Each structure stands twice: as C-alpha cells, then as structure tokens.
Amino acid sequence: MKRPPFLKLNDKVVILSPAGNICAEHVNKATDIMREWGLEVTVSENALRETGRFSGFVEQRWQDLQRAMDDPDVKLIFCSRGGYGAVHLLDRLDFSAIKKQPKWLIGYSDITALHTAWQSNGIMSVHGPMAQHFSEEGAANLSVLYSKAALSGKDLHYTVPAAYPFLNREGKASGTLFGGNLTVYTSMLGSKYIKIPRNGILLLEDIGEEPYRIDRMIYQLKIAGVFDRLKGLIVGQFTEYEEDNTMYGSLYESILSAVKEYDFPICFGYPVGHTSINLPIIMGGNATLTVNKENVLLKQRY
C-alpha cells in the first residue's frame, strides 16, 4: 500500500464536494483554517453547486475529482462533506495518474466509497473530519488538530477511556485498517473496490440507522466472510438512532452477539464518526489496537 507524501508548507489542497451539497460558509471557514496551516487552498469549480441533494450533476462532481486526481501539484483532496453520491463517480474514475503520484484524500461517511477505491488501487487515505466539521468545531478542535498532525507525518497515538468496558473484548492486534461507514461499506461488498485485507482491523461507524438495519448489515459482513479475516474490530460512534426494545439487546450488544465466536479484540464507542471528536485514522495503513479494562490504545506510525 502506497503512502502519499506528507504535507509541507505551501502544498496545494483542493476542496471539492463529491457527494452532497454544502453551504459556502463552511467551505470558507475550512479554507481559512488550512491556509493558517500554511497550505495553498483552492475550491473546485463545482464544490458549491446545488442540484437537489447533490453538489452538481454526476459529470460535474466527477470532473472536479478527476482534475484533482490528475493535477500533479495537488497534494490533498479535501472532501467538503458526505451525504450521498460518491458511488456515482467510482466507475468513471481513472487512477492511472494518482497511482504513479499518490495524494491524500480525507473524508468519512459517504466518502467511504472513495476510501475503498483508493485502497483497491493501493493508496492510503485519511478517514477524518471534513469542511463542515472544521467550520463548526473550529481550528482548536482536537480532531482538526490531529488531522493536521496526521497529514503532516506525525505519529498517531490515541489513548481513550474505554466507553463500554463491559462490552469490550480485551486484547492486542496489529493489521491493516479498513472499513468506514457501515451502510456504505456493506453496499460495496461484491464490487471490485472491496479488497478485504487478511489480518485487518475493521472500523465501523454510522448515523441515523435503526438497530435492526445495523444488525442486518453486521450479519451481511459475517456471512460474506469479513470477520473470518479480522485481527481486530473498532466499533465507532453510532449516532442519531433510538434503541429498539423488540431486539434481543442494545445496538452494541447485537454487534457483540454477532461476533461472539471470534476471539479478536473489540472496542465499542470509539471516537470516530458523526461527533465533535472524530479522530483521523489512516485507512490502508498498518495500526496496532490494544483494548484493556480502562483504555483503548490505537497507534499508527509512518
């Protein structure tokens, strides 16, 4: 897996919207923050368009992304937001230039579709906050600061309190990080973009999905053989849902039940997802996960 060059002073960043539309205020504030980092930031031609729920028609969104992928001066493709629509672009993308000259992509949620495409072409990417998060949370937000660190080549060494110690399964594992948004990732199963690493560490998060739907997607991963290849499982933030008392247990308990026969370490409620703390993680990169009674440790070093 190729790691794109880490960012340095005056490197060029393009903010684009490969899926949902976004207001200009969020993009402008994110632009200001990255310019304060010493980066040259431009906004793609169609990033602020509004075509229904999308940021422009498919052709417009694809052109913005392809131009950024092909431009040798662009070092970071910064997604403005998720929403829905990144999947429209996948079969149109030409990776020939970016495979020769890898560059970072950062985003999460619907951008999981692009992460899978990056990894299927042998390139690492960053699962992390986007323009709306930068705008709403500000430059001093922990996730924003860690995003700068990750893109600049600093080691990622997170130690967070165990949110669900009674559900977590203790242990230590090293492997390739992959996954992202559960709904988007499971929708990609069976496509050429899903390459499940052997001995990988799977990250999952989601928003606004009912528990029975989450349960169905977890079992989809199970019967597809994904869990058979894992060394570790990171269950991130599942937000904006209500527990269903007609299920056998809570949402997190249902996930644990589905993987009860495996022995890999698992943590629940890890600070990744649609929350104010959304720690950036390098997808396609190697990581070490340690789960103990008090804390969850995640290390990535390059």
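That was protein one. Protein two is written in the same sequence-then-structure order:
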Amino acid sequence: MRALLVVNPRATAATHRARDLLVEGLGSDVAVAEAVTEYCGHGIALARRAVEGADGPDPALPRCAVVPCGFANIFARALGVPNHPLAAVERLIGALREDRCRTVSMGVAGERYFTFCAGLGFDAAVIRRVERLRSAGRRSTAGVYIRSALREYVAGASGRRATISVHLADGRELPPVVLAIVTNTTPWTYLGPRALSPTPLAAFETGLDVFAMTSFGAVPAVRSVLRLLTGSHRVADPRWSVALHDLSEFTVRAPEPVDFQLDGEYLAGRDEVHFRAVPGALRVVV
C-alpha cells in the first residue's frame, strides 16, 4: 500500500517529531512519501496527483486520513479522531490494519470543496484578523480568536446592514442577513474544549445547513454567543436569525464583496457563492 503524507507546516502542532512518528508507525504497512505544502492551494494540487496514482479496491474514491496538528482540528474531531497527533497516529495505524473506513459528504463552494464549514461576513472577518497576526508570528490560541472577534465587532460589525441574500434551490429567498455560516457537520468550531454548534443537526450523512443572522446588534450578538457557549440546541432565534437544515444547494449573494472563509481559511471577498452538497464524496480511514 502507498500513501502520501501532506504536511501543512503552518499547523500549530505540525512538528518534525509528530511527522517522524507517523512515518515510522506506518512504515511496516505503508510506503509513505512526504510532501510539505508551500503555498495556498498546494495541498489541493498534491492531493490531485495522489488520486491520479491511487490504488486499492476503489481507485475512483481513494482513502484519506487526517492527523490533527492545528488549533481547532474540527474535521478530525468531528470524525472522532483523538485531538492529539500521537494518539491520532496510533488510531490511524490500527484503522489501516483493520481496514476501518467511513464515507462522508463534502460541501462545494464555487469550485472549492470543504469538509466542515464556510462563512460569509463576521466569522470570515475574524479569521482574516487572526491570519494577519499569525503572519506576524503569533500562535493561534483561544485568546487570539476572542480578542480578534471583539475588535472586529467594535470596528463596525455590530452596525453592519443586512445586505447578504440567500437564494434557495426552490426559488425562495431568505430575508437579508448580516452574516451566513454554512456547515457540513457539527460543531461549527471549538473554543478550547467547548464545541460551538449553531447548526446542531448538521451531519456528514445529510446535506448542508445554514445559520444566518438578520441583525447583529448587541442583544442578538450577546444572546447568540451565550447560547453557543452553553451548548443550547436553540441558538437560532426567529427574531434575529434563520436556521436551515439538509440543503442540497443554494446561492449566497451580496451587492459588494464580503469576507469569505472556507474550512477556517480566509479566501478574500466574494459577492456570490454557489453552495452544493456532495454525498459520499470522501472515504476516510478512522
């Protein structure tokens, strides 16, 4: 069996020690080649080349695995992978030997696939701030995200007008919203050990879910955050938010580009994004 180990050197815990242990642990079962990403989108190119040379019982849907080395590790944790590189490596070795796989859905935003979430508006703007700090040498921590969120809110997010529109496949259009979060699973993110789930019904076995806010003033923002932090299954309040479950496709539009993120990666402004769900898109070793 052959495998390509794609390493993101910017991941918080992507140390040489963790990489060496992974290669060493897989060595007796798998011929491992290693590649380090060098620019945005490089991982996609590496994965495409790996798929072209895939072997196994179903080369059209090759197996993949994830070892969490980042800050939140949302995709890995949603799959039940231990949130520590070494523990995840041990689980991966056992899963390969026992041929344990799970087929999961993915989302597509425009031409880009995503595993757990996308966002337009406030959450993407927060990620933009965090990525600037990381480029300056700061590490990702819960404190960095909280301070970035507060600064973004004070800088004007609270007064933003609801100009984003969500157009459903059946022709319906939601009321104008300030921000939109699209999820392929739950949770949406983590704050330390605490899971934040504005779309608690989202799952890899269903379509896409949407949480959107029609107002982001002090009362809606504070009450929504408190419900997220307490794990409430009623984060969406009809007075200022909308929640949709199991959508096959829809389009989000804005009169001018708004901040956009995909799986926690900032992708600059977008004025239109078409989303669709892709069932059974990925075969994951777990």
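The radius of gyration is 19 Å. Keep this in mind for the problem set.
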